[in-house]
Amino acid sequence: MSYIFDRHLYKEGMRQTKSIGFTMFALSLVSAIVMPVYYLYAAKKNHDMSVVYISGTGFAGGLRLFAFLIPLFLLAKLFGFLYKRGSSDFYHALPYKRQCIYFTNLLVACTWYVICIIVPLFSATLLFKINTKVRCPWSYLGSNLLVYMVLELFLSGAYLIGASIVGRSKVAFEVGIIVAFLPRVLMFLAVICVNGVVPLIDSNYVSYLSTKYNLAMELSVGAMVDYAGYRSSFTFAPGIIITLIEAVIYIVLGLILFTKRKSEVAENAAPNFKALIIIQVLLVLVIFIFGMANTIVEEDSTIFISAACFGTIVYFISSYISLRKLKETVKTLIGIPLLIALSFVFYFVVTMAGEHVLNDVPDADSIESITILDNNTSFLTGFMGSTKSYSAIALENESFSDPKLSSLVVKNYDYTATLIREKRLETYSSENELIRINYKNGKSAVRCIYIDPDIKETFSDVLETKEKYREIVCSIPTDGEVESFQNKEYNKEIWDCFCKEYEKLSEEKKLIMYYKSADNYGPEYMWGDYSEEEQDDLGEYDTISVRGLYMGQEYRSSYNIYKSFMPETYRLSQKLSFLDNKERFNRINSKFTGRNIENGDLYLEAMPQDFIYKGMIVESIIFNVNIYDEEISYVSFMIRLYENPEEGNNKPDGAGSNEGTGDEEGDNGSKIVRTSDIQLDSEEAYEWYNQMIDCFNMEYQENYTGTKSRIFGSCYDGDYSINFSFDVAIKNDKLTSFIKMAEERNKK
C-alpha cells in the first residue's frame, strides 16, 4: 500500500476535475493570448505601428486573475468530501493512507496547474514572437512560468490548511485567505502607516516585511496598482524562494492537519466555538486595522470609528452565514472587543516604530559605507521613471566608504527627522534620496533622507573621487544584456556603432554623457547650470534607448548621441531616422493625396529656421485637415511671421500658441503676422497641400545647404495614428511663393 501516491485515486481525481480543469484552461488560454492577438491585429491593420516592447509582467497579464482562481476551484472539488459527513466517512473508510489521499489529490491539482499555466504562457510567447512589431524576450516566459507555479503551490498550501481545519467550504475559503494574506496585509499596513507618519523608511526596503517577499500579496496588489516594485517581482529571486519555502511549509502543515482531522468536523463551521470566533476575528481584523492606520496618518479618529462600525456589520453577517443561528451568532460578538484591543496594539506598535526610526540617528563613526538606491527621482542615480536604468541597478549593488559621505548622511538624517517632526513634508518629499546605511557591526538600514540643496554638489563631488563610482556610471550594457531597442527596428545598427565610438571616449566625456544623458532629469548641481551655451557646446544630438535584464532586474536606459562626441554614430542615426520618417511621410502623403483616409485627420507643421520673408522671421507653417467620409470638412492654415529679425529670436507674448488673431505685439515691439483658419474646398486643399510640400527637398542630405526646416506630421486613420519628424532643406523661392499665396488668400 502506497503512502504517497495511488494511480487509481489519481485517475479518479482527474475524472472528477475534468470539467473544471478544461474550463479553467480555456479561460486561462484566452486571458493569456488576448494581448498578443490584439497586437497581431494592430500590426496587420497599421503597417506604420511603432515597435512595441512587452514588459516581463505584462505579456500575459490577463492570466493574473485566473492564477488565483485555479487552485480554489480545483481543490474545492478534490477535497469537497471534507464538507459532507457521508462523503467524509466514506473517504476515511477507504483502504488508503490519508497521506496518500492528500498527496494524490494535490498531484491532480498540480497536473492542471501545468496545463493551465504552461500552455497559455507558451502560446502567448509564440504569438508575440511571430509578430514583427513586438519584442518579447524568451526569458520572460521562464520567469513567468516559475512565478506562477510557485504561486499556485503557495495558494494550494494555504487552502489545504483551511480545508483540513473546518467543515464548510465557505469557512475553509476564509481560513485560506487568512493564512495566505493576513500576515502580509498586516505587515503591509504597518509599513505603509509608519511610512506615512515617518517617511524616512521605504516600503520596498524593509527586509522581510516588504510585500515583494510574498508573490501572492505582490501580484494581487500589482493587479490593482501597476507600481515599480510589482514589475520587479517576476525577477526578484529572494521573493520567489521565500514564497516557495512558505508554500512547502503550508503544504506540510496542511498534511499534518489533514491526517489528524476527525470525520465529525464535516458540516461544522469550525472544530469548536472558540475556533470560530478566532476565525471571524482574523477575517475582519484587516478592516479595523485599516481604519486605525488611516486614523494614525490622517490624525482623524472618525475614520477608525467608521471602519469599526463597518467591520462589526461584516463580522456579524459572516458569523451568521457560518452558524445559521441568530442566538449563536450574537454570542460571537464577544470577538468585537478583541478586535478593538488588537487595533490599539497596532496603534502603539506603529507609534513606537516611528519614534524609533526618528531617533535612530547614526553616529558617523559607526557607518562602514553607504549604498545609493534608486527611488525614481534620485539625483545620484540621475534617473526618473518607473523602470530603473542600467547604472541605477549597478549602483544599488555597490557600497562607497568615505568619512565625508558618512558625515553628510548623519547631518542630513538628523535634519530630515527635524523636518518630519515639524511636519514640513512638502519640502522633504521634493529633495529626498534613498540610501542604505551599512554599519560596521554588519547591520544595515535603508532611509529616505532629505538632502540639503546646498551640499548636493559636495555629495556628488565626493562620489566622483571613487573609481568604482566613475566606472559604474561610465559603463553601458553589453550585447548579452541588451534584449530590445526602443521604438526603432534599425537601432541595433546604431547601437553597435554607438558602442564602438563610446569605448574610445575619455572618462571625462563619458561622465558628461552620463550627467546629460536622456536618463537624467537635470541634476544641475552635478553639471553646471545647464545653460544653453553649455548645451550648444556639445552640439546636436539624437537619442537611443535600450532594454534588457541586468542583475536579475529589468532596466531601460537612454543615451544621447552627441554629434561632437560621436560623429559617426550621429550621422548614421540621422540618416536612418530620416529614411524611416520619410517612409512614414510617404505613406501619409499617399493616403491623403489618394483621398482614402476614412474618418481621420492630417496634421503637418514645417518650422523653417531663420527663413526671412519681407524682413520678418518665419517661425512655422501649419496645415491641418479634418476628413469625414473621405470628404474634407475643415482646413486650417497658420503661418507665423515675426518682425524685427535683427533683434534675434525675441518673440512676442503668446508666441508658439494658437491664441489670438491678426497682429500681436510683444514687450519688445516685435509683431507676429499670421494667416489662419483659411476655409478651402476639397480641390483647393489638395492644391495647397501639394504646393507646400513642393517647398521642401524631401531627399536625405548629410550636410544641408541653405535654410533648414523641421517637419512634424501625424495622420489619424480610423483606429491608428502615424507620427514622424525629420529635417529637410527649404527651396526658398518656392516657400516665398507659397507665403505670398497665403497672404493674398487671407486678404480675401
Mean pLDDT: 80
Show unreliable segments: 225-230, 519-535, 647-669
Overall structural class, as computed from helix and strand content, comes to alpha+beta
Number of strands: 17
Helix content: 40-55%
Distance, first to last CA:
101 Å
* Sheet with the most strands, sense and barrel status: 9 strands, antiparallel
**Shape, principal axes of CA atoms:** globular
> Count of helical segments?
25
- From the alpha carbons, calculate the radius of gyration and give it in angstroms: 33 Å
Strand content: 15-25%
What topology emerges from the helices and strands here?
Layout: H1 7-16, H2 18-45, E1 52-53, H3 63-78, H4 85-93, H5 98-129, E2 134-135, H6 139-165, H7 169-197, H8 215-224, H9 228-231, H10 237-260, H11 273-298, H12 301-323, H13 326-331, H14 335-359, E3 367-372, H15 390-396, H16 403-421, H17 425-430, E4 432-439, E5 444-450, H18 456-464, H19 467-473, E6 484-485, H20 491-504, H21 507-515, H22 532-538, E7 541-550, E8 553-562, H23 567-593, E9 601-608, E10 611-613, E11 616-628, E12 631-642, E13 664-665, E14 671-676, H24 682-693, E15 696-697, E16 708-717, E17 720-730, H25 732-747
Parallel strand pairs: 1-2
Antiparallel strand pairs: 3-4, 4-5, 6-7, 7-8, 9-11, 9-16, 10-11, 11-12, 12-14, 13-14, 15-17, 16-17
